[in-house]
Design brief:
62 residues, mainly beta, two-stranded antiparallel sheet, elongated
């Protein structure tokens, strides 16, 4: 961390990882999961997941 509270990008210590990922076991895939990672690691199973809920056309008209 730098003096103003922001993370220093040159600091190679671990960071907090919040939320699970599709590559985890069921118990660790939940939103409340907390873990750690190094910022220079490449983890293909972490990232943003978008979800869309489909509605029948009759509900979209209202």
């Amino acid at each position: 961390m730098v003096g103003d509270g922001r993370e220093d990008p040159d600091d190679r210590s671990t960071r907090v990882r919040r939320g699970g990922a599709w590559g985890y076991d069921r118990d660790d895939a939940r939103v409340a999961y907390r873990g750690s990672y190094r910022p220079y690691d490449y983890l293909s199973y972490l990232g943003l997941r978008l979800v869309a809920v489909s509605r029948p056309p009759s509900l979209l008209d209202h």
